Amino acid sequence: GGYNTNEIFRVDKGFVAQIQGVEGGRRARMNPALAEEASKTVPDEFSDIPHERGVLSMGKFDEPHTGTSSFSMVLGDAHFLDGKYTIFGRVISGDHVLSKLEKVETKKEGIFVMPKERIELLSACIMYADDDGRLFGSLEDLEANLKLSEGARTGGGDGEAAMKATTSSGKRKRGKKARPEPKAEESLPMEEL
């Protein structure tokens, strides 16, 4: 992914831990398609969701509609960012990782509080969560799980299939090869801080 070998370049306790934009923070080379995608900006999309601990907020420049691939994990209440930065997600598991980030030794460089040592993302992926916080590796898996769950709740024809298609722990089976659900910790490889 685009964030593989990228870095968390800013750790400001009680405020944000910020991931460098894909163009600026990777150690690995970018292929032309990734470089083109990383150079694009994203329009602002504001909501009523407040900037509070665990929120994922898109980095941008001062001008409107200049969202980038840089993003922040909010470490405290930062309501002054509301209506100025686009929120696109939330940490649903792994708050202890945010707490570990806040304990990293830092130094002040200009307006930024930065870690003294590089914190590198080994890999990153998109995870999808249902209302119960169960994680899925693709949107298709999430949608299939939601359809199966709906059939089980309504007594529809899919209810029996839902019972057969899941294990006792709620993990979905696929034919002879059962693919376990990814764990939240696997999506946050910075556990070793």
Largest sheet: 6 strands, antiparallel
What value does the Rg take, in angstroms?
Answer: 19 Å
Order of helices and strands: EEHHEEEHEEEEEHHH
CATH architecture type of the largest domain: Beta Barrel
Can you give the mean pLDDT?
79
Number of strands: 10
- Major β-sheet strand ordering: 5-3-4-2-1-8
Share of helix among residues?
A: 10-25%
Principal-axis shape equals globular
What's the number of domains?
Answer: 2
End-to-end separation: 21 Å
Helix/strand/pairing category: alpha+beta
Percent range for β-strand residues: 15-25%
CATH class of the largest domain reads Mainly Beta
- Low-confidence parts lasting 5 or more residues at pLDDT below 50? 156-193
Name the CATH homologous superfamily of the largest domain.
Cyclophilin-like
Description of the molecule:
Residues 150-193 are annotated as: Disordered. One of its GO terms (molecular function) is peptidyl-prolyl cis-trans isomerase activity. This is PPIase cyclophilin-type domain-containing protein. Residues 1-126 form the PPIase cyclophilin-type domain. The structure is a single chain. With 193 residues, the protein is an alpha+beta fold. It has two domains: 7-123, Cyclophilin-like (Cyclophilin); 128-187, no CATH class. It is built from six helices and ten strands. The strands form three sheets. It has a six-stranded antiparallel β-sheet, covered by helices on one side. A two-stranded antiparallel ribbon has the order 6-7. The longest helix has 16 residues, at 139-154. It starts with 6 loop residues before the first strand and ends in a 6-residue tail after the last helix. Mean pLDDT is 79; it is low at 156-193.
